[in-house]
Amino acid sequence: MQIIPIASGKGGVGKSLLAANLAIVLARAGRRVVLADLDFGGANLHLILGVRGVTVGVGAFVTNPQIEFASIVRDTDYENLRFIPGDGEIPGIANLGSGQKRKLQRRLRGLDADIVVLDLGAGTSFNVMDFFLLSRRGIVVTTPTPTALVNAYLCVKNALYRLLTTTIKRGSAADKLLKEMTRDTERIQRIYLPDLVARLEAADPDTIARYREASATLRPRLVLNMLDDPKDAERATRLRRSCSSYLGLDLEHLGIIYRDELQDVSLGSHLPIVVYKPDAVLSQAIERIADKILETPADEDSREWMDVETSFATASAEAESDFQIKSDYVNELLRTGALSHGDLLETVKSQQIEINQLRRQNDLLKAKIVKAARMGYDVGSGPWRSR
Ligand SMILES: Nc1ncnc2c1ncn2[C@@H]1O[C@H](COP(=O)(O)OP(=O)(O)OP(=O)(O)O)[C@@H](O)[C@H]1O
Ligand SMILES: [Mg+2]
User: Fold this and answer.
1) Span 52-96, pLDDT tens digits
2) What angle do CA 28, 283, 256 make, to 5 degrees?
3) For atom 23 of ligand 1, which residue has the closest CA?
């Protein structure tokens, strides 16, 4: 059984959209899939899936011992796809206790399925990371915006850091040293992870040997969502470099997805986009991601990874070809008269207004950053090294 956790760092980047649609595509391909909404406090997958009348889910299961796990795994309208709702209305589940967490993890691992897709909450808290680390090849979703990219980086960094802290046994030499170093929380956020590991290694080589073994199999997979332009695809390269030089970790590119207005229409129709319009560029991009997942071995210990370089080159090529398809589509609409030049002009105009608004917001934010920097706020030395 393969677990596919989907995390992001920043919220609103498309985790749930990807989780729901990917689960449907994988189920269509004949895999027995379970999709779980683990966005504690912000569960909304049922809306994307179009499931109504959700009453019990993960929240009820972890807070009420009378509720059987099997009773929260429900069938969906889609063959081979079952769904575990999150029920966000239960307060306090955002602070899931470690006993509850372990119980839930055990049940998820024990599911009788081929693939379990986990839609995680935004952020990089240990609770999110612990579910992300249920797989060595979890998916990190980001958009090309700088904040989303920084958050994606922090997501990978915190996953590694969580792996480190869970490998260290209580009372060991590494544990004592780490506790000493983490007393100063400001400092630990800024610390360069390989340096930290090297210092711990000097004090406790056995523990760190175990960590190195565990982290060597960690290969998070990137999905770059909401592209507007093929150039946006280049943003992933910087994230990859940061992960490799500051964390010593390779990222694999699982694919790009363009922003698509059809997504809003599909939401309004209560049908996931891969069902509403399977041939849309957005749906096809998700199918492509599913294909790549199905091509990789399910075995967690397998190191038959796609070559990193190839995965990034493929993603760039996808960005070019999807853009071409999108422009061809507009040209076709113009040619057949379905879209008049007037309509097109209107669209361009309204987009221009939107761009101008965004520019103004951007200037405002820049001014705020400059002001904060002047007030002596340390924004760190490297681009990704500090919060
Ligand atoms: N490629 C896309 N094209 C158009 N709209 C998109 C695309 N990806 C996501 N969206 C829209 O962006 C919004 C955020 O997406 P989604 O809810 O999947 O993000 P999320 O990462 O799960 O957010 P959260 O962190 O709040 O759970 C939704 O309205 C979704 O329909
Ligand atoms: Mg979500």
Assistant:
1) 877 789 988 998 899 999 999 999 999 999 999 997 666 666 678
2) 115
3) 12
